[in-house]
Protein backbone atom coordinates (compact mmCIF):
# COMPACT_ATOMS: atom_id res chain seq x y z
CA UNK A 1 0.00 0.00 0.00
CA UNK A 2 1.47 3.35 -1.00
CA UNK A 3 -0.65 5.34 1.46
CA UNK A 4 0.65 6.97 4.60
CA UNK A 5 -0.41 5.35 7.84
CA UNK A 6 -0.52 6.32 11.50
CA UNK A 7 3.12 5.22 11.68
CA UNK A 8 4.08 8.20 9.52
CA UNK A 9 2.65 10.77 11.94
CA UNK A 10 3.85 12.18 15.25
CA UNK A 11 0.63 12.61 17.21
CA UNK A 12 2.13 14.29 20.28
CA UNK A 13 -0.01 17.33 21.22
CA UNK A 14 -1.91 17.06 17.95
CA UNK A 15 -5.68 17.36 17.63
CA UNK A 16 -6.68 14.08 15.99
CA UNK A 17 -9.92 13.04 14.29
CA UNK A 18 -10.41 9.35 13.39
CA UNK A 19 -13.14 7.97 11.13
CA UNK A 20 -14.04 4.54 12.43
CA UNK A 21 -16.70 2.15 11.26
CA UNK A 22 -18.77 1.64 14.39
CA UNK A 23 -21.80 0.77 12.30
CA UNK A 24 -22.60 -2.22 14.49
CA UNK A 25 -25.91 -4.08 14.57
CA UNK A 26 -28.20 -2.48 17.19
CA UNK A 27 -31.43 -3.65 18.74
CA UNK A 28 -33.32 -1.33 21.10
CA UNK A 29 -30.14 0.44 22.12
CA UNK A 30 -28.17 -2.77 22.68
CA UNK A 31 -25.07 -3.58 20.62
CA UNK A 32 -25.49 -7.05 19.08
CA UNK A 33 -21.91 -7.57 17.95
CA UNK A 34 -18.92 -5.31 18.66
CA UNK A 35 -16.36 -6.87 16.27
CA UNK A 36 -16.04 -3.66 14.27
CA UNK A 37 -15.42 -1.65 17.44
CA UNK A 38 -12.77 -4.02 18.73
CA UNK A 39 -11.12 -4.05 15.31
CA UNK A 40 -10.45 -0.29 15.60
CA UNK A 41 -8.87 -0.47 19.06
CA UNK A 42 -5.25 -0.94 17.89
CA UNK A 43 -5.41 2.39 16.04
CA UNK A 44 -7.21 4.24 18.84
CA UNK A 45 -4.82 2.95 21.50
CA UNK A 46 -1.77 3.68 19.34
CA UNK A 47 -2.82 7.31 18.88
CA UNK A 48 -3.67 7.71 22.57
CA UNK A 49 -0.32 6.30 23.67
CA UNK A 50 1.36 9.12 21.79
CA UNK A 51 -0.37 11.75 23.93
CA UNK A 52 -2.34 13.71 21.39
CA UNK A 53 -4.01 16.96 22.46
CA UNK A 54 -7.28 15.09 22.12
CA UNK A 55 -8.88 12.34 20.04
CA UNK A 56 -12.21 12.69 18.26
CA UNK A 57 -13.97 9.65 16.81
CA UNK A 58 -16.68 9.75 14.17
CA UNK A 59 -18.83 7.10 12.52
CA UNK A 60 -22.21 6.53 11.01
CA UNK A 61 -24.63 4.12 12.68
CA UNK A 62 -27.29 2.68 10.45
CA UNK A 63 -29.03 4.84 7.91
CA UNK A 64 -31.50 6.92 9.95
CA UNK A 65 -33.83 7.93 7.12
CA UNK A 66 -34.01 4.51 5.48
CA UNK A 67 -34.13 2.64 8.79
CA UNK A 68 -37.08 4.74 10.00
CA UNK A 69 -38.95 4.25 6.77
CA UNK A 70 -38.45 0.48 6.84
CA UNK A 71 -39.45 0.17 10.51
CA UNK A 72 -42.48 2.41 9.97
CA UNK A 73 -43.68 0.32 7.04
CA UNK A 74 -43.21 -2.86 9.05
CA UNK A 75 -45.12 -1.44 12.02
CA UNK A 76 -47.95 -0.36 9.71
CA UNK A 77 -48.05 -3.81 8.12
CA UNK A 78 -48.15 -5.48 11.54
CA UNK A 79 -50.75 -2.98 12.77
CA UNK A 80 -48.42 -1.83 15.58
CA UNK A 81 -47.79 1.75 16.79
CA UNK A 82 -44.48 3.33 15.77
CA UNK A 83 -42.51 5.69 17.98
CA UNK A 84 -39.95 7.34 15.72
CA UNK A 85 -38.01 9.10 18.48
CA UNK A 86 -37.64 5.91 20.47
CA UNK A 87 -36.70 3.95 17.36
CA UNK A 88 -33.95 6.42 16.41
CA UNK A 89 -32.72 6.40 19.99
CA UNK A 90 -32.31 2.63 19.99
CA UNK A 91 -30.99 2.21 16.45
CA UNK A 92 -28.98 5.20 15.33
CA UNK A 93 -27.78 7.19 18.36
CA UNK A 94 -24.19 6.85 19.48
CA UNK A 95 -24.74 6.85 23.26
CA UNK A 96 -24.48 3.05 23.69
CA UNK A 97 -21.46 3.05 21.38
CA UNK A 98 -19.65 5.75 23.40
CA UNK A 99 -20.45 3.90 26.63
CA UNK A 100 -19.22 0.59 25.27
CA UNK A 101 -16.07 2.19 23.87
CA UNK A 102 -15.33 3.66 27.30
CA UNK A 103 -15.37 0.11 28.67
CA UNK A 104 -13.16 -1.22 25.88
CA UNK A 105 -10.64 1.62 26.32
CA UNK A 106 -10.97 1.69 30.08
CA UNK A 107 -11.17 5.46 29.77
CA UNK A 108 -14.01 8.01 29.76
CA UNK A 109 -15.48 8.79 26.34
CA UNK A 110 -17.45 12.02 25.96
CA UNK A 111 -20.36 12.24 23.55
CA UNK A 112 -21.02 15.29 21.35
CA UNK A 113 -24.61 16.38 20.67
CA UNK A 114 -24.05 16.19 16.90
CA UNK A 115 -21.27 15.62 14.37
CA UNK A 116 -21.15 19.31 13.40
CA UNK A 117 -22.73 22.58 14.53
CA UNK A 118 -22.14 25.30 17.11
CA UNK A 119 -22.85 23.17 20.17
CA UNK A 120 -20.44 20.48 19.08
CA UNK A 121 -17.79 23.10 18.32
CA UNK A 122 -18.08 24.32 21.91
CA UNK A 123 -17.70 20.78 23.24
CA UNK A 124 -14.64 20.23 21.04
CA UNK A 125 -13.05 23.48 22.17
CA UNK A 126 -13.51 22.53 25.80
CA UNK A 127 -11.76 19.16 25.45
CA UNK A 128 -9.00 18.62 27.97
CA UNK A 129 -5.63 17.03 27.39
CA UNK A 130 -5.82 13.43 26.16
CA UNK A 131 -9.63 13.35 26.22
CA UNK A 132 -11.69 11.20 23.85
CA UNK A 133 -14.86 12.51 22.22
CA UNK A 134 -17.33 10.51 20.13
CA UNK A 135 -19.31 12.58 17.65
CA UNK A 136 -23.00 11.82 17.15
CA UNK A 137 -23.97 9.78 14.05
CA UNK A 138 -22.55 11.49 10.95
CA UNK A 139 -25.58 10.41 8.93
CA UNK A 140 -27.90 12.66 10.93
CA UNK A 141 -26.61 15.34 8.55
CA UNK A 142 -27.70 15.08 4.97
CA UNK A 143 -24.42 16.63 3.77
CA UNK A 144 -22.62 13.45 4.86
CA UNK A 145 -23.98 11.40 1.97
CA UNK A 146 -24.86 14.25 -0.39
CA UNK A 147 -24.09 13.74 -4.07
CA UNK A 148 -23.29 17.44 -4.22
CA UNK A 149 -19.58 17.93 -3.50
CA UNK A 150 -20.18 21.47 -2.21
CA UNK A 151 -22.55 20.15 0.47
CA UNK A 152 -20.12 17.43 1.47
CA UNK A 153 -17.26 19.90 1.58
CA UNK A 154 -19.18 22.20 3.92
CA UNK A 155 -19.55 19.37 6.43
CA UNK A 156 -16.02 18.06 5.85
CA UNK A 157 -14.55 21.52 6.52
CA UNK A 158 -16.32 21.67 9.87
CA UNK A 159 -15.07 18.23 10.80
CA UNK A 160 -11.57 19.17 9.66
CA UNK A 161 -11.66 22.34 11.77
CA UNK A 162 -11.68 20.14 14.90
CA UNK A 163 -8.31 18.58 14.15
CA UNK A 164 -4.75 18.75 12.82
CA UNK A 165 -4.69 15.20 11.45
CA UNK A 166 -7.30 12.88 9.94
CA UNK A 167 -6.98 9.12 10.35
CA UNK A 168 -9.26 6.84 8.37
CA UNK A 169 -9.68 3.39 9.93
CA UNK A 170 -13.17 2.80 8.54
CA UNK A 171 -12.49 0.16 5.94
CA UNK A 172 -16.17 -0.86 6.01
CA UNK A 173 -17.16 2.62 4.80
CA UNK A 174 -14.25 3.20 2.42
CA UNK A 175 -16.30 2.41 -0.69
CA UNK A 176 -18.44 5.49 -0.03
CA UNK A 177 -17.33 9.01 -0.98
CA UNK A 178 -18.93 10.63 2.05
CA UNK A 179 -18.01 13.82 3.92
CA UNK A 180 -16.50 11.95 6.89
CA UNK A 181 -14.77 9.22 4.87
CA UNK A 182 -13.41 10.89 1.77
CA UNK A 183 -14.06 14.64 1.62
CA UNK A 184 -12.50 15.49 4.99
CA UNK A 185 -9.18 14.13 3.66
CA UNK A 186 -9.00 17.15 1.33
CA UNK A 187 -8.60 19.51 4.27
CA UNK A 188 -6.15 17.74 6.59
CA UNK A 189 -3.11 15.49 6.45
CA UNK A 190 -4.85 12.14 5.97
CA UNK A 191 -3.49 8.70 6.84
CA UNK A 192 -4.72 5.12 7.19
CA UNK A 193 -5.24 3.39 10.52
CA UNK A 194 -4.05 -0.15 11.28
CA UNK A 195 -7.36 -1.83 10.44
CA UNK A 196 -7.51 -0.08 7.08
CA UNK A 197 -3.90 -1.07 6.44
CA UNK A 198 -4.51 -4.70 7.40
CA UNK A 199 -7.65 -5.03 5.27
CA UNK A 200 -5.91 -3.56 2.24
CA UNK A 201 -2.83 -5.71 2.78
CA UNK A 202 -4.82 -8.98 2.83
CA UNK A 203 -7.26 -8.15 0.07
CA UNK A 204 -4.65 -6.34 -2.00
CA UNK A 205 -2.20 -9.25 -1.96
CA UNK A 206 -4.96 -11.69 -2.87
CA UNK A 207 -6.05 -9.76 -5.94
CA UNK A 208 -2.71 -8.48 -7.14
CA UNK A 209 -0.10 -10.99 -6.12
CA UNK A 210 -1.66 -14.19 -4.75
CA UNK A 211 0.41 -17.22 -3.86
CA UNK A 212 -0.91 -19.92 -6.20
CA UNK A 213 -3.05 -21.95 -6.41
CA UNK A 214 -5.61 -19.20 -5.82
CA UNK A 215 -9.20 -20.35 -5.29
CA UNK A 216 -12.20 -18.04 -4.95
CA UNK A 217 -15.58 -19.14 -3.67
CA UNK A 218 -18.54 -16.96 -4.48
CA UNK A 219 -21.98 -17.60 -3.07
CA UNK A 220 -24.98 -15.72 -1.77
CA UNK A 221 -28.39 -14.99 -3.12
CA UNK A 222 -27.90 -13.15 -6.33
CA UNK A 223 -25.57 -13.02 -9.31
CA UNK A 224 -26.64 -9.38 -9.68
CA UNK A 225 -24.50 -8.20 -6.77
CA UNK A 226 -21.53 -10.42 -7.62
CA UNK A 227 -21.13 -10.21 -11.42
CA UNK A 228 -18.26 -7.74 -11.24
CA UNK A 229 -16.44 -9.78 -8.59
CA UNK A 230 -16.83 -12.96 -10.62
CA UNK A 231 -15.60 -11.23 -13.77
CA UNK A 232 -12.63 -9.60 -12.05
CA UNK A 233 -11.56 -12.74 -10.17
CA UNK A 234 -12.02 -15.01 -13.18
CA UNK A 235 -8.84 -13.59 -14.68
CA UNK A 236 -6.79 -14.15 -11.55
CA UNK A 237 -7.85 -17.44 -9.98
CA UNK A 238 -6.90 -21.04 -10.65
CA UNK A 239 -10.42 -22.12 -9.75
CA UNK A 240 -13.66 -20.27 -9.16
CA UNK A 241 -16.27 -22.13 -7.12
CA UNK A 242 -19.84 -20.87 -7.32
CA UNK A 243 -22.54 -21.84 -4.82
CA UNK A 244 -25.52 -20.31 -3.06
CA UNK A 245 -28.78 -19.22 -4.60
CA UNK A 246 -27.05 -17.84 -7.68
CA UNK A 247 -26.10 -21.33 -8.92
CA UNK A 248 -29.66 -21.88 -10.11
CA UNK A 249 -29.59 -19.00 -12.57
CA UNK A 250 -26.48 -20.57 -14.09
CA UNK A 251 -28.28 -23.90 -14.41
CA UNK A 252 -31.45 -22.32 -15.80
CA UNK A 253 -29.27 -20.59 -18.41
CA UNK A 254 -28.07 -24.05 -19.44
CA UNK A 255 -31.66 -25.20 -19.83
CA UNK A 256 -31.95 -27.31 -16.67
CA UNK A 257 -35.09 -27.63 -14.53
CA UNK A 258 -34.52 -25.66 -11.30
CA UNK A 259 -37.97 -26.06 -9.77
CA UNK A 260 -38.92 -23.22 -7.46
CA UNK A 261 -35.28 -22.34 -6.71
CA UNK A 262 -34.11 -18.75 -6.68
CA UNK A 263 -33.99 -17.43 -10.25
CA UNK A 264 -32.87 -14.09 -11.58
CA UNK A 265 -34.63 -14.20 -14.91
CA UNK A 266 -33.01 -10.95 -16.04
CA UNK A 267 -29.53 -12.34 -15.41
CA UNK A 268 -29.74 -15.45 -17.60
CA UNK A 269 -27.69 -13.76 -20.34
CA UNK A 270 -25.08 -12.65 -17.84
CA UNK A 271 -24.84 -16.16 -16.39
CA UNK A 272 -24.43 -17.63 -19.87
CA UNK A 273 -21.77 -15.06 -20.74
CA UNK A 274 -19.79 -15.89 -17.59
CA UNK A 275 -19.93 -19.59 -18.51
CA UNK A 276 -18.88 -18.85 -22.11
CA UNK A 277 -16.02 -16.58 -20.99
CA UNK A 278 -14.76 -19.19 -18.56
CA UNK A 279 -14.76 -21.80 -21.32
CA UNK A 280 -13.06 -19.49 -23.83
CA UNK A 281 -10.36 -18.50 -21.34
CA UNK A 282 -9.93 -22.03 -20.07
CA UNK A 283 -10.82 -21.03 -16.50
CA UNK A 284 -11.84 -23.67 -13.99
CA UNK A 285 -15.30 -22.49 -13.01
CA UNK A 286 -16.95 -25.12 -10.85
CA UNK A 287 -20.69 -25.21 -10.16
CA UNK A 288 -22.32 -27.53 -7.61
CA UNK A 289 -23.18 -30.99 -8.84
CA UNK A 290 -25.80 -31.72 -6.20
CA UNK A 291 -28.13 -29.69 -4.04
CA UNK A 292 -30.27 -30.07 -0.93
CA UNK A 293 -33.84 -29.34 -1.98
CA UNK A 294 -36.80 -28.60 0.25
CA UNK A 295 -40.53 -28.49 -0.42
CA UNK A 296 -40.71 -24.99 1.04
CA UNK A 297 -38.47 -22.09 2.14
CA UNK A 298 -38.50 -23.18 5.75
CA UNK A 299 -36.10 -24.87 8.14
CA UNK A 300 -38.81 -27.46 8.74
CA UNK A 301 -39.14 -28.26 5.02
CA UNK A 302 -38.93 -31.92 4.07
CA UNK A 303 -35.59 -32.28 2.33
CA UNK A 304 -33.77 -34.40 -0.19
CA UNK A 305 -30.34 -34.46 -1.82
CA UNK A 306 -30.60 -34.50 -5.60
CA UNK A 307 -28.35 -34.06 -8.61
CA UNK A 308 -28.59 -30.57 -10.12
CA UNK A 309 -29.90 -32.39 -13.19
CA UNK A 310 -32.84 -33.82 -11.26
CA UNK A 311 -34.38 -30.97 -9.27
CA UNK A 312 -38.10 -31.73 -8.82
CA UNK A 313 -40.30 -29.00 -10.31
CA UNK A 314 -42.14 -28.44 -7.01
CA UNK A 315 -38.98 -28.15 -4.85
CA UNK A 316 -36.32 -25.49 -4.34
CA UNK A 317 -32.58 -25.79 -3.79
CA UNK A 318 -31.50 -24.44 -0.42
CA UNK A 319 -27.93 -25.70 0.02
CA UNK A 320 -25.11 -27.44 -1.81
CA UNK A 321 -25.08 -31.24 -1.48
CA UNK A 322 -22.46 -33.63 -0.01
CA UNK A 323 -20.80 -34.41 -3.36
CA UNK A 324 -20.30 -30.67 -3.96
CA UNK A 325 -18.99 -30.19 -0.43
CA UNK A 326 -16.36 -32.84 -1.17
CA UNK A 327 -15.46 -31.36 -4.56
CA UNK A 328 -15.21 -27.78 -3.26
CA UNK A 329 -13.38 -28.75 -0.06
CA UNK A 330 -10.72 -30.62 -2.04
CA UNK A 331 -10.11 -27.54 -4.21
CA UNK A 332 -9.87 -25.31 -1.15
CA UNK A 333 -7.52 -27.62 0.73
CA UNK A 334 -5.11 -27.63 -2.24
CA UNK A 335 -5.06 -23.81 -2.43
CA UNK A 336 -2.43 -21.41 -1.10
CA UNK A 337 -4.70 -18.34 -1.32
CA UNK A 338 -8.45 -18.51 -0.75
CA UNK A 339 -11.04 -15.74 -0.95
CA UNK A 340 -14.61 -16.49 0.08
CA UNK A 341 -17.62 -14.27 -0.32
CA UNK A 342 -21.21 -15.39 0.10
CA UNK A 343 -22.82 -18.39 1.82
CA UNK A 344 -23.36 -21.70 0.00
CA UNK A 345 -26.97 -22.02 1.11
CA UNK A 346 -29.62 -20.53 3.37
CA UNK A 347 -27.20 -20.74 6.30
CA UNK A 348 -29.54 -18.83 8.62
CA UNK A 349 -31.65 -22.03 8.74
CA UNK A 350 -29.69 -24.78 10.54
CA UNK A 351 -30.92 -27.49 8.16
CA UNK A 352 -29.40 -25.63 5.21
CA UNK A 353 -26.17 -24.44 6.84
CA UNK A 354 -24.15 -27.65 6.26
CA UNK A 355 -22.63 -26.56 2.97
CA UNK A 356 -21.59 -23.17 4.32
CA UNK A 357 -20.17 -24.71 7.51
CA UNK A 358 -18.23 -27.29 5.50
CA UNK A 359 -16.67 -24.56 3.34
CA UNK A 360 -15.77 -22.66 6.53
CA UNK A 361 -14.09 -25.85 7.80
CA UNK A 362 -12.21 -26.31 4.52
CA UNK A 363 -10.87 -22.74 4.85
CA UNK A 364 -9.78 -23.47 8.41
CA UNK A 365 -8.01 -26.64 7.22
CA UNK A 366 -6.29 -24.78 4.38
CA UNK A 367 -5.15 -22.12 6.86
CA UNK A 368 -3.58 -24.82 9.04
CA UNK A 369 -1.69 -26.07 5.99
CA UNK A 370 -0.23 -22.62 5.39
CA UNK A 371 -2.72 -21.01 3.02
CA UNK A 372 -3.77 -17.38 3.33
CA UNK A 373 -7.55 -17.45 3.70
CA UNK A 374 -9.73 -14.38 3.49
CA UNK A 375 -13.42 -14.12 4.23
CA UNK A 376 -15.31 -11.16 2.76
CA UNK A 377 -17.48 -9.29 5.23
CA UNK A 378 -21.24 -9.26 5.57
CA UNK A 379 -23.01 -12.62 5.42
CA UNK A 380 -19.84 -14.65 4.96
CA UNK A 381 -18.39 -13.08 8.11
CA UNK A 382 -21.57 -13.98 10.03
CA UNK A 383 -21.46 -17.47 8.57
CA UNK A 384 -17.88 -18.18 9.63
CA UNK A 385 -18.60 -16.78 13.08
CA UNK A 386 -21.70 -18.98 13.30
CA UNK A 387 -19.51 -21.97 12.41
CA UNK A 388 -17.17 -20.93 15.26
CA UNK A 389 -14.22 -20.71 12.85
CA UNK A 390 -13.69 -16.97 12.56
CA UNK A 391 -10.36 -17.18 14.38
CA UNK A 392 -9.24 -20.19 12.31
CA UNK A 393 -8.83 -18.27 9.04
CA UNK A 394 -6.20 -15.67 8.17
CA UNK A 395 -8.51 -12.68 7.86
CA UNK A 396 -12.22 -11.91 8.20
CA UNK A 397 -12.96 -8.57 6.60
CA UNK A 398 -14.96 -6.02 8.58
CA UNK A 399 -16.34 -4.55 5.36
CA UNK A 400 -19.05 -6.28 3.33
CA UNK A 401 -19.66 -3.76 0.54
CA UNK A 402 -16.12 -2.39 0.72
CA UNK A 403 -14.44 -5.79 0.39
CA UNK A 404 -16.74 -6.69 -2.51
CA UNK A 405 -15.90 -3.48 -4.35
CA UNK A 406 -12.22 -4.04 -3.69
CA UNK A 407 -12.47 -7.57 -5.11
CA UNK A 408 -14.27 -6.11 -8.12
CA UNK A 409 -11.08 -4.15 -8.79
CA UNK A 410 -12.66 -0.79 -7.98
CA UNK A 411 -10.87 2.10 -6.32
CA UNK A 412 -12.24 2.80 -2.84
CA UNK A 413 -12.76 6.57 -2.53
CA UNK A 414 -11.98 6.56 1.19
CA UNK A 415 -8.59 5.01 0.46
CA UNK A 416 -7.81 7.01 -2.67
CA UNK A 417 -8.28 10.26 -0.70
CA UNK A 418 -5.48 9.43 1.79
CA UNK A 419 -1.99 10.90 1.40
CA UNK A 420 0.46 8.93 -0.71
CA UNK A 421 3.66 7.72 0.91
CA UNK A 422 6.02 9.84 -1.17
P1 LIG B 1 -25.71 -12.16 -0.48
O1 LIG B 1 -26.11 -10.97 0.34
O2 LIG B 1 -25.95 -11.99 -1.95
O3 LIG B 1 -24.30 -12.63 -0.16
O4 LIG B 1 -26.68 -13.32 -0.07
C1 LIG B 1 -26.73 -13.87 1.19
C2 LIG B 1 -28.02 -14.60 1.33
O5 LIG B 1 -28.10 -15.60 0.36
C3 LIG B 1 -28.21 -15.29 2.65
O6 LIG B 1 -29.21 -14.62 3.37
C4 LIG B 1 -28.64 -16.70 2.26
O7 LIG B 1 -29.74 -17.17 3.01
C5 LIG B 1 -29.04 -16.54 0.82
N1 LIG B 1 -28.97 -17.79 0.07
C6 LIG B 1 -27.93 -18.62 -0.07
N2 LIG B 1 -28.26 -19.69 -0.78
C7 LIG B 1 -29.55 -19.58 -1.10
C8 LIG B 1 -30.48 -20.39 -1.82
N3 LIG B 1 -30.11 -21.57 -2.33
N4 LIG B 1 -31.75 -19.94 -1.95
C9 LIG B 1 -32.11 -18.75 -1.43
N5 LIG B 1 -31.29 -17.95 -0.75
C10 LIG B 1 -30.02 -18.35 -0.59
Q: How does this structure look, described?
A:
The chain is α/β, with parallel strands linked by helices and 422 residues long. It has two domains: 190 residues, 3-Layer(aba) Sandwich (Rossmann fold), CATH 3.40.50; 198 residues, Rossmann fold. Helix content is 38%, strand content 15%. The protein has 16 helices and 17 strands. A six-stranded parallel sheet has the order 5-6-4-1-7-8. Strands 11-10-9-15-16-17 form a six-stranded parallel sheet, with helices on both faces. A three-stranded antiparallel sheet has the order 13-12-14. Strand 9, helix 9 and strand 10 form a beta-alpha-beta unit. It is globular and about 70 Å long. It starts with 14 loop residues before the first strand and ends in a 6-residue tail after the last helix. The model has no long low-confidence stretch (mean pLDDT 96).
Structural class: alpha/beta
Shape-level CATH architecture of the largest domain: 3-Layer(aba) Sandwich
CATH topology descriptor of the largest domain: Rossmann fold
| Low-pLDDT windows of residues | none
Quick one: biggest sheet? 6 strands, parallel
**What is the rounded distance between the termini?**
12 Å
The averaged pLDDT comes out at: 96
Number of strand segments: 17
- The CATH class of the largest domain is Alpha Beta
Number of domains: 2
Helix content: 25-40%
Bound molecules: adenosine monophosphate
Within CATH, the superfamily of the largest domain carries the name Phosphoglycerate kinase, N-terminal domain
Please, how many helices? 16
Q: Choose one word for the global shape.
A: globular
Radius of gyration: 23 Å
Numbering strands along the chain, what is their spatial order in the largest sheet? 5-6-4-1-7-8
Strand content of the residues, in percent? 15-25%
Amino acid sequence: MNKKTVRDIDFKNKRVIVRVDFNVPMKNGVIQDDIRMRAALPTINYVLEQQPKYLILMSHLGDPKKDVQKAKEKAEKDGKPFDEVKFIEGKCKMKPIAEHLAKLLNKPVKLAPAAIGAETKTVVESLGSGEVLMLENTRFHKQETSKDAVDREAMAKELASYADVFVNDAFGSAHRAHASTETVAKFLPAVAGFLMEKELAYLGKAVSNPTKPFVAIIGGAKIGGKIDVIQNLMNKVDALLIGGGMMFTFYKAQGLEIGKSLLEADKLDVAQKILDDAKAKNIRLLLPTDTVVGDKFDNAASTNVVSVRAIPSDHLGLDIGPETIKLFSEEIRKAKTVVWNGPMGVFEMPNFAKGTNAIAQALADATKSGAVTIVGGGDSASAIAQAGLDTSVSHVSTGGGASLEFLEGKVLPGVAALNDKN
